[in-house]
Amino acid sequence: MIILIQLLNAVQYGLLLFLLSSGLTLIFGIMGVINLAHGSFYMIGAYLAYWFAKLTGNFWLAIPLAIAVAFAIGLLIENTIIRRLYRRDHLYQVLLTFGLILVFEELRSIFFGDEVHGVATPKILDFSVPLTDTLSYPVYRLFVTMVCLGIAALLYWTIYKTRIGMMIRAGNSNREMAASLGINVPLLFTGVFAAGMALAALAGAIAAPISSVFPGMGNQILIICFVVVVIGGIGSINGALIASIAIGFADTLGKVIAAEYSAIAVYLVMALILLWRPQGIGNQA
Amino acid sequence: MTPISLPRPLLLVAVLALAFFPFAASTFYVQLGAKIMILAIFALSLDLLVGHSGMISFGHAAYFGVAAYALALISPKYEAANLWLTLPAAMGASALAALIIGFFVVRTTGVYFIMVTLAFAQMLYAVFHDTKAGGGSDGIYIYVRPEMTLAGWKPLDLENPTQFYYLALIFLIGVYVFLSRILEATFGRALAGIRLNEPRMRSIGFPVFLYRLGAFVLAGALAGLAGYLAACQFGFVNPDILAWQQSGIVLMMVILGGMGRLHGAVLGAFSYVVLQEALSAPALLGAYAKHWQLALGGLIVLIVLALPHGVGGLLDGVLRRKNRAGEIA
Predict the structure, then answer these.
(1) Is residue A198 part of a domain?
(2) DSSP one-letter string for A106-138
(3) B119 touches chain A (CB under 8 A)
């Protein structure tokens, strides 16, 4: 039974990582921008959910509000700053988005302070499913897993079955060709960037009751998402899904077997994948 | 082509100015000067990768931190360690870490390289932060600075801030001269060739993997030198010195100072420390001094958008204009 609990945790964490890394990998694949500030939007989502939940007293209202604000910030940032990076060297993308992290992190410190804040689990989901006499599993975690699965399905459907998805895939494989076929590339870029930010914020918002909100939470998860993107292959949604679940398992099982070394296990998986397939599991050599 | 180093007379003036600085400055500024020079060595080591080899490492603080930890771990608790033994050991530890990590990372290029170097650096961070090997998140104190005694002869006393300043200056000059020499030798030329056209270098018969790995290990060892000196100066190591923010800051120094130019790395370190001191001084920003990183981040964004070639690009323009004026006269 303990194994079942750990498996559920691994899947839940892995799917949460997928919400973040799918945006990261698409933004890189389509626009060629390495966005370090992606983790900041996870943090923004979590803090906004915490703040709106306190303000309105309703977690279910806080989540859409947090996502909407993050989407708006994404639009603003893309229009004013990220847009100017599309043709620049990765070096400047790294430096500029590093600057953005510092800005977001300090704004967080000014507006919300440096303390850790808990976010109450919504009443309706605040109970556990009994598994045995002594063990039980919190329903909220199951809810997070379900939401992530739903979003992942929606993402698949959008990318592989809709006209917008077709444009995204076209932009991913060849930007110039897509533009010359009449796709409004600047608009597509703005949309994908803001949608990626909204996904990151959603991940932060629904994770908040589990992990609470704390300084630096975005940076910690950003680096794990990089590992996911490296393993999955840049631009590959399928790769990101497989890699997210794999990292979810490596981290969760690592914590069970040797807690002190669990963070290291994740990087060892990456090192092995690099030797085996340097271009990631989702991409052809 | 942009010059790798400043013209000789200008360098001589700079060295003389640095050498006479302690006579004119208070202890606080002498210590600040030593800190700048240590960071300059760190930035120079990263410029070997970023500016000269085209490898954008976002995990360079790892090698800085490994040497700092090496010193802290091998120093006796209440006695001075011997610099002649601990410095090579600490740099060797950094070089070894760079060799093992480099074996995996130098096969990747572009954005993969950025992410993978970051991830491995974070792995070392996790080692020092999560396990008890280096005192965990609390870190370790180094109560006594290492000694330079060699067979009864003691050239510099590291406990004395002015003498420590000169030690840092000597190492900075040494690293600067060493890098400018090897960059003009075959090794540096080959690295430049690999940066500009890797397939061609490969087809000519250069062992690209070995050259890149060599540069990675050398940069790691030199970052280790800076980390060793930093640990001496602050007397304290904790996992934050190899956190990824440090890697970002040193990358910023290199880019803002102007990559691919040795003096650029030094200027970058100088500008960063001066900027940090100015922004975090309550005199300038009042209550917001605590949040100086907000101003720093905003400034980084503005500089990247406004100056495509960094602050060093501006300096190049000035130097080039001077050269042209000289040619006409």
Answers:
(1) yes
(2) HHHHHHH-SS-B--PPPGGG--EEE-SSS-EEE
(3) yes
Q: Full-prediction pTM beyond 0.95?
A: no
Phi-psi region of B280 (alpha: psi -120 to 50; beta: other; left: phi over 0): alpha
Whether B130 and A263 lie within 8 Å, measured CB to CB: yes
Q: What is the CATH number of the domain that holds A201?
A: 1.10.3470
How far apart are the C-alpha atoms of B305 and B303, rounded to whole Å?
5
Q: Is B82 exposed, middle or buried (0-12, 13-18, 19+ CB in 10 A)?
A: middle
A260 and B130 within 8 Å at the Cβ level: the answer is yes
Query: For residue A270, which residues of chain B lie inside 8 Å, CB to CB?
Result: 116, 119
pLDDT one-digit tens code per residue, B120-163: 998 899 888 887 777 777 888 888 888 877 777 777 788 888 99
Which region among A171-175, A200-204, B150-154, B273-277 has the lowest average model confidence (pLDDT)?
A: B150-154
Yes or no, beta carbons of B112 and A234 under 8 Å apart:
yes
DSSP track, A172-190: HH-HHHHHHTT--HHHHHH
The number of domains in chain A is: 1
Cα–Cα distance for residue pair A66/B16, rounded to 1 Å: 57
| Domain boundary assignment for chain B | 8-328
Question: What pLDDT, in 10s, does the model give residues A195-227?
Answer: 999 999 999 999 999 988 999 898 889 989 989
Residue type, B188: G
Q: Which of A28, A114, A274 to mutate to test the interface with B (most CBs of B within 10 A)?
A: A274
Q: Does A226 touch chain B (CB under 8 A)?
A: yes
Q: Residue B207: left (phi > 0), alpha (psi -120 to 50), or beta?
A: beta
Give the domain B8-328 fold: ABC transporter involved in vitamin B12 uptake, BtuC (1.10.3470)
Q: Three-state SS for B2?
A: coil
**Chain Cα centroid distance, residue B279:** 22
Residue A285 within any structural domain of the chain: no
Q: How many CB atoms lie within 10 A of CB B290?
A: 14
- The minimal CB distance from A278 to the residues B108, B114, B132 is found for B108
Chain A positions touching B294 (Cβ under 8 A) are 102-103, 106-107, 110
Cα–Cα nearest to B298, from B275, B314, B273, B274: B275
Structural domain boundaries, residue A161: 2-276
